Amino acid sequence: MIEVIDLVVDRGKRTVLNGFSCSVPTGSVTGLLGPSGSGKTTLMRAIVGVQIVRSGSVKVLGLEAGSAALRHKIGYLTQAPSVYADLTVRENARYFASLYGQSAAQADQIVANVGLAGAAHQLVDDLSGGQRSRASLVCALIGRPEVLVLDEPTVGQDPVLRDELWEQFRALAADGTTILVSSHVMDEANRCDRLLLIREGELIADDTPAAVKASAGTDDLDKAFLALIRRHGESASDPEGVRS
Amino acid sequence: MTLVHTTVRILRQLRHDRRTIGLLIVVPVLLLTLLYYMFQDQKQVFNSVALIMLGIFPFIIMFLVTSIAMLRERTTGTLERLLTTPLRRTDLLFGYGIAFGVAAAIQATVASLVAYWLFDLNTAGSQALVILIAVTNAVLGVALGLLASAFARTEFQAVQFMPIVALPQILLCGLFVARDQMAAWLEALSNVLPLTYAVEALQEVGAHPDPTATMWRDLGIVAGAVVLALVLASLTLRRRTP
Question: Which residue range forms the structural domain that includes residue B109?
Fold first, then answer.
């Protein structure tokens, strides 16, 4: 369970999140959607505890985000692949495994799970973009974390691989892992249990994909989001509306 | 245990970068060669300058290598990721200290072997002590490099800490002007710079057949500066960033 209450975050001179609240239920896949610059990455950074926040509270599994006890329980995939380019895939995996007290065999297993067994001995520097981001994903999955925060894990992946990765996310959630995943791809949004739509630091929708579509009166998530954004824009400019 | 794993990881990275290993070993030797021919007819000058350079080269090289390595951790996002894992910040920094210390030991050994055997460097004290001081000095470079990298956002900034941190220490360590002949305030400044003590320790080995109390004291001061810089570096390594 992730609980964010009245979160205010400034980055540079800009207030990226201004009184943002949301929650992510345990054992589910929650999709975080929104255009670039809407605050998705900032929210994720706050949840994993590496973002300086001005005010508000972020609790993960009942603990303050960033607390030492959480570091064994959380896996974080940054948007840009963050693995050592001058190590092989296997060396990266085994190093991160060692930080969580996991064995080399477990590391190799997860390398195989994301379809990188054939590239295990290659330097990350020599991998394709898609392979590189999967190598980075390996290092997020490796501690068998209870909470997974994944910033655009499937960008640039082959559709078959993307499908396999999503099956793995679903399987992990079924085992009780709480997953927050950001994405640009609407067909992935349909595979989430819940969706958080965020735009300019504001939460525009927080519901199941079906309910989001129903409330917008369309079967197409792309159109549904457009409708919700427009509706939100009108209520924001409406003097009766108390949003700001 | 994470300290050991981190040290091994850094050494593995280094091992994959053969050219860097080559440069680490060859550059001090080339510079010593230059010194040898510069002072071919002044054996005494070569003896005192080469001895000090055996301590200064690893200091400068390790300072640069480390500040870039740490900056790379920062810019590629691996540092941010590491800070979300159970890894302790001191384990990361001491991991760098040990890993680059090992590299520096190889570098200093090769350089001093060349200096003694090929160029007939002559010291009253033992070669092993020279290597010990050179390695301690390299680790000082590592520690100061880690600390300096906390204040750099880009590679351009990082490399400029070299002239800020290393050059004044080299200028004031007594190599160019004897410290007791400097203006009082310069001497006072040199008294608080760790490289001063490393150079003095090397000069002690050069002049005395047995290790002197001054040499051990100086070595202790340099080691203390290493620990202090590493602790300061771990304090400036914030888990949360803007």
Answer: 2-236
